[in-house]
Design a protein that fits this description.
The complex is a heterotrimer of chains A (387), B (366) and C (307).
Chain A (H helix, E strand, L loop, with lengths): L1 H22 L4 E8 L6 H17 L2 E4 L2 E11 L7 H10 L4 E3 L4 H13 L4 E3 L14 E3 L4 H15 L4 E7 L3 H16 L3 E7 L7 H9 L4 E3 L4 H13 L6 E3 L6 H7 L6 E5 L7 H13 L1 H6 L8 H20 L4 H7 L4 E4 L2 E4 L10 E7 L6 E8 L2
Parallel strand pairs in A: 1-3, 1-4, 4-5, 5-6, 7-8, 7-9, 9-10, 10-11
Antiparallel strand pairs in A: 2-3, 11-14, 12-13, 14-15
Helix pairs in contact in A: 2-12, 3-4, 5-6, 8-9, 12-13
Chain B lengths: L6 H23 L5 H26 L6 H16 L5 H4 L14 H23 L4 H20 L4 H4 L5 E2 L9 E2 L5 E3 L4 H19 L1 H11 L1 H6 L4 H27 L1 E2 L6 H14 L4 H18 L8 E2 L2 E2 L7 H16 L17 H7 L1
Antiparallel strand pairs in B: 1-4, 2-3, 5-6
Helix pairs in contact in B: 2-8, 2-11, 2-12, 2-13, 3-5, 3-6, 3-11, 5-11, 8-9, 9-11, 12-13
Chain C lengths: L1 H32 L6 H17 L4 H24 L7 H23 L4 E2 L9 E4 L2 E4 H23 L1 H11 L1 H6 L4 H26 L2 E2 L5 H14 L4 H19 L1 H7 L13 H15 L14
Antiparallel strand pairs in C: 1-4, 2-3
Helix pairs in contact in C: 1-5, 1-8, 1-9, 1-10, 2-3, 2-4, 2-8, 2-9, 3-8, 5-6, 5-8, 6-8, 9-10, 9-12, 10-12
The chains are: A alpha/beta (387), B mainly alpha (366), C mainly alpha (307).
């Protein structure tokens, strides 16, 4: 019996070596995908990863210094948590990736940052909007807008368009994204003459009824809760059952079909700012939807339907920015790619992307979207700019 | 009573020296990006924390579940006092740079981290140590939860940065010696955690072998008998609790250095459970066991078992079940098997020198 | 003033009732085995996940709910047989570590099955609807919970006081060894305890997740801990104590979440202090105080250590 086992094992080993050697026709360049696949931001991280995977299908090879390379995506799940991020980052580094994409969530990006820096590997943040991600970091770039901008857009919209005077802000304690966006919203909103009340809930909280009562008791005109998808769906559905009549406002994390589904069939007025409005680029929309229809796993990861989240589109654009950087660098070496990144410019589906001196994308506009309570779809409201 | 042979102790020292030399050599030779170093750094950190927990649970018989709370205190004290003044406005971005406008040297901050943890242990120990075994466990667990929230409270922000991350403090990589061009000439980023942890564990071992250590063990074996022999229970328990927390605080500071960021929300009960499981796997009542199992635990969870989380192809055959999270399932099953069937863990109550003693003697000791 | 506090009381009574159903399992198991069953909160979470998957298979709800309760009871039974029974003669700490191991295993298993994503709990017609009560809007389940809890507790107390198995339970919790000598089948008594405890946790999960309809692997941890605190608060081993403790903790927790508003409206403070974050910590502070001041809890029996 033991002998048979040994023979089988040896065969398996031999076969697997054979399989590897067959696949290596083209030289390979590795791109690290530093995204959460579990935890509070798991749902959003998966949608962002879908954008990267789809881009990889659209453009599986890249021309670097006259040779065609096959692009291989190396995934590492950072578990939405800053204490799991170090080993996930180290895993990417130890696999010698040339550039890293991600992450969804600012806290994990900051936590992984030091590891990429030490290994001299550049990272392109896709939807981590906190200023701290790139500030003082020569190796971190990003393709999305920043929280001071987004906070101002939201505050302007809330004060001028919705006519709100008192805003109830609810964030998760210890989430850099939530706390950052709320702070910048508060600054802008109070600057306009409004009042802000700020409450925090603990990680893993699921009872929001009392927080929603707080909003009512304070006589707030709107609830601003730029929290993870995991919490925002609960807030929306509990607000609905508590008969909350004031609008619920959110940042780019809330732009997800999962959150829209929670607001479907209720009377909750749900408004978000985001990077992309479905329909802006028909070719991308159709291609992506066709891919989802052909891949059941991808469809599940997108939350079960084919609505396109803003983060997916940022994943797609980030991938192409990385390819352009590899081309410009003419090398797969991390340091060379880092040197090439500041001058990279591409026309992505979310608009033109170029980096400023801190490595942030130069963006001046954001989309405001609103849920249609009957269909559960996102509807375009306005494109907001801030000077 | 026969005279103790010196050979086992000698072998032990040789092994320890070889480990340190090996770590130093490996760091100079292997690429710094290797997963090995992550495991070694985190392993060294967890080894200290596990030994400090073992001091309470294994040697004194106090079943405390407050480890994460004391680590949190250590990590925060270290972070708060070592962030360079120039970086404070960036870190404390919502609190105008915070109230503390100086930075301490690393060694001093480490000691302070330990002392702060020990101080809180003293305070919480006054009421809590009077409780019985499982009540004590749940009370210390509750304490860890409370401290986590206090740190996150917004009015504490100017000191603790509220619930936001502390970062940019010196981490393990800052121990590497660099030349003028900023290139690393001598790698020390793994050796230093080994040294810190080694010295601390050494101190704990010295304590355990002293009269105090024997008193603690007698409390574990039979509280009433120990008291009858004239051991001051309250005093000894408090002492053990404070010492254990002191080292847990230093361990927390090391964890901060390893992670390069600190945030209160990750010092959860789950972290305490993880350390408890390490202690159990190593053998409750064995310092060597705790050290071994820390490295094993970290290596298995961060490195060796990672392949279980990804699709694996053998030829064209896709191995079933493998996807994100499977690693943790396998891991939990292994832990349950140890807990149920190998209750003595890897080492039981034996230490490294015991392994080199002759069998005959071992039997005689029983 | 009343109008300000009322919504928080309402939330508190509802969640308190759900904690109570979990707390009964803790207190019964502790009463008999002197074991803090750390995995009990996770059994509660597993009940939630099972419901998600059974309902997704398209079975009607009147099949789903009993099926979930049966499966949960079975899970409790299996856990006891696999993880606690072999350790019956081992030191108490071993059993507790085993409980922590089971909790770790259940969470990781669910993480693996769900892929680490939140699962939406199915809506149960009738109790998921909103109703108006005393000026506040809430779900029907909020109102049903306390009533159901009282009915279940009455049934359970009757079972313990009037039936043969109840008598055996009382005997075992009084004195384990003597009960065994008197011919009581210890193992079946313990299994029954676990089955009842898990069954009630299952009921609790249906109510809880109808109110807060998202399930993830860590969903059971906090409610589990709080229910345990409730059991200690009420006096471990005492079922009415656990229920009253749970209601007090549920109410206090929600009052703390709204404390800023209440104090603000009463004119005590000029601006909010962010006290809501202490809602969980308060539970534990209460625990430490009660342990120090009156370790036997509100209704606990005084026990003496045997030398």
């Amino acid at each position: 019996m033991k002998k048979i086992m040994m023979v089988v094992l040896a065969l398996i080993l031999a076969l697997s070596c054979f399989a590897v050697s067959l696949a290596e026709d083209l030289p390979v360049v590795k791109i690290g995908v530093f995204e959460p696949a579990s935890g509070d931001s798991g749902a959003g991280g998966k949608q962002e990863t879908l954008g990267i995977q789809y881009a990889n299908i659209v453009q599986p090879t890249v021309e670097i210094g006259g040779t065609t390379y096959k692009v291989e995506l190396v995934m590492a799940d950072n578990g939405s948590s800053a204490d799991k991020a170090p080993s996930a980052a180290q895993k990417l580094v130890s696999e010698n990736v040339s550039v890293v994409l991600g992450s969804y969530g600012s806290g994990v990006s900051i936590a992984g940052s030091e590891y990429f820096k030490n290994a001299n590997i550049p990272a392109i943040g896709l939807t981590c909007t906190n200023p701290q991600v790139t500030a003082g970091n020569s190796h971190y770039f990003r393709v999305c807008f920043l929280d001071p901008f987004q906070g101002t857009v939201l505050a302007n919209y809330a004060f001028k368009e919705l006519g709100a005077k008192t805003a109830y802000c609810l964030g998760e304690a210890g989430n850099d994204y939530d706390q950052g966006l709320i702070t910048f919203f508060q600054q802008a909103f109070e600057g306009l003459g409004g009042t802000v009340i700020h409450d925090d809930f603990q990680n893993n909280n699921s009872d929001f009824t009392s927080f929603l009562s707080n909003a009512q008791m304070y006589g707030a005109d709107l609830i601003f809760c730029p929290v993870s998808i995991a919490y925002s769906t609960q807030i929306v559905s509990q607000a609905a059952s508590q008969g909350i009549a004031i609008p619920v406002l959110g940042g780019d994390t809330l732009d997800s079909n999962v959150v829209a589904a929670a607001a479907k069939g209720t009377s909750i007025d749900l408004i978000v700012t985001t990077f992309y409005q479905e329909g802006a680029n028909k070719e991308f929309d159709d291609g992506f939807k066709a891919w989802l229809a052909s891949d059941a796993e991808a469809m599940t990861n997108n939350g079960g339907n084919d609505m396109i989240a803003g983060v997916t589109c940022m994943g797609y654009d980030g991938y192409f920015a990385a390819l352009k950087a590899l081309q410009d660098a003419g090398s797969t070496d991390g340091a060379a790619v880092m040197a090439a990144l500041p001058t990279v410019e591409i026309d992505g589906v979310s608009g033109h992307i170029a980096f400023d001196e801190t490595g942030d994308a130069i963006r001046t506009s954001a989309f405001v979207k609103k849920v249609n309570n009957e269909t559960g779809d996102w509807e375009f409201v306005a494109e907001q700019t801030v000077e | 009573m026969k005279k103790k042979s010196k050979v086992p102790a000698l072998i032990t020292w040789i092994i320890i020296a070889a480990v340190y030399a090996g770590v130093f050599a490996a760091e100079q030779v292997l690429p710094a990006t290797s997963m090995l170093f992550t495991v070694l750094k985190k392993g060294a950190t967890y080894a200290l924390v596990a030994v400090s927990m073992n001091l309470l649970n294994g040697f004194t018989g106090i079943f405390s579940l407050g480890q994460a709370g004391f680590m949190l205190i250590g990590a925060y004290v270290y972070g708060i006092f070592t962030i360079p003044v120039a970086d404070r406005p960036v870190v404390y971005q919502y609190y105008d740079g915070g109230v503390i406008q100086f930075a301490l040297p690393v060694v001093l901050a480490l000691a302070l981290a330990g002392l702060a943890a020990a101080f809180f242990a003293f305070l919480i120990g006054l009421p809590v140590l009077r409780l019985k075994s499982d009540y004590l466990a749940i009370a210390t667990l509750g304490f860890a939860e409370i401290i986590r929230v206090i740190v996150q409270w917004n009015p504490m922000g100017p000191v603790t940065n509220g619930s936001n991350m502390l970062r940019l403090f010196p981490n393990f990589n800052d121990f590497n010696i660099r030349n003028a061009q900023g290139e690393v000439t001598v790698y020390l980023s793994t050796l230093i955690p080994f040294l810190i942890s080694g010295v601390c564990i050494g101190l704990i071992v010295l304590l355990l072998n002293s009269g105090y250590g024997r008193a603690l063990k007698s409390i574990r074996d039979d509280e009433i008998a120990a008291e009858a022999m004239g051991i001051n229970l309250a005093h000894h328990k408090r002492l053990a609790f404070c010492i254990s927390s002191f080292f847990a605080g230093i361990g927390g500071a090391m964890l901060a250095m390893y992670q390069t960021t600190v945030q209160a929300k990750f010092f959860t009960t789950a972290m305490t459970y993880e350390i408890l499981l390490i202690v159990v796997i190593g053998g409750v009542g064995s310092v060597t066991g705790s050290v071994f199992s820390s490295f094993l635990f970290v290596a298995a969870s961060e490195w060796w078992l990672r392949f279980l989380d990804e699709k694996q192809m053998i030829g064209s055959f896709e191995v079933p079940l493998l996807r994100n999270g499977f690693r943790l399932v396998v891991f939990s099953v292994i832990i349950m098997v140890v807990v149920l069937f190998f209750r003595r863990g890897i080492m039981g109550t034996k230490e490294l020198p015991d392994l080199f003693r002759k069998k005959r003697k071992e039997e005689a000791e029983k | 003033m009343w109008n300000t506090i009322f919504p928080y009381l309402l939330s508190g009574v509802s969640v308190g009732g759900q904690y109570a159903l979990i707390a009964i399992g803790y207190t019964m198991v502790y009463g008999i085995l002197r074991l803090i069953n750390f995995a009990h909160g996770d059994v509660f979470m597993v009940a939630g996940i099972v419901m998600v998957y059974i309902a997704a298979s398209g079975l009607p709800l009147w099949v789903c709910i009993p099926a979930v309760l049966l499966i949960t009871a079975a899970v409790g039974f299996i856990i006891e047989r696999v993880a606690y029974k072999p350790l019956r003669s081992a030191p108490r700490m071993s059993a507790m570590i085993s409980a922590i191991g089971v909790s770790y295993t259940l969470q990781n298993l669910v993480l693996y099955i769900t892929g680490g994503l939140n699962k939406q709990y199915p809506t149960i017609p009738g109790i998921s609807n909103s109703i108006q009560i005393g000026g506040a809007t809430t779900k029907v389940v909020t109102v049903i919970t306390p009533v159901l809890v009282i009915l279940l507790v009455a049934a359970l107390v009757t079972l313990i006081n009037k039936t043969k198995i109840g008598m055996a339970m009382r005997a075992v919790s009084k004195d384990f060894e003597t009960a065994q000598l008197m011919g009581i089948k210890i193992n079946s008594v313990i299994s029954t305890t676990f089955v009842i405890g898990s069954f009630l946790a299952g009921v609790g999960s249906v109510l809880y997740f109808t109110n807060y309809p998202t399930v993830i692997q860590t969903s059971g941890a906090m409610p589990g801990l709080k229910a345990f605190v409730a059991a200690v608060f009420g006096g471990i081993g005492s079922i009415p104590g656990a229920v009253i403790g749970a209601f007090i903790i549920g109410i206090m927790e929600n009052i703390i979440k709204g404390l800023d508003v209440i104090l603000f409206k009463a004119g005590v403070i000029a601006k909010p202090l962010g006290l809501a974050i202490f809602s969980d910590a308060f539970t534990f502070a209460l625990l430490i105080v009660i342990l120090v001041v009156k370790p036997t809890g509100l209704f606990g029996e005084k026990t003496t250590d045997k030398v």
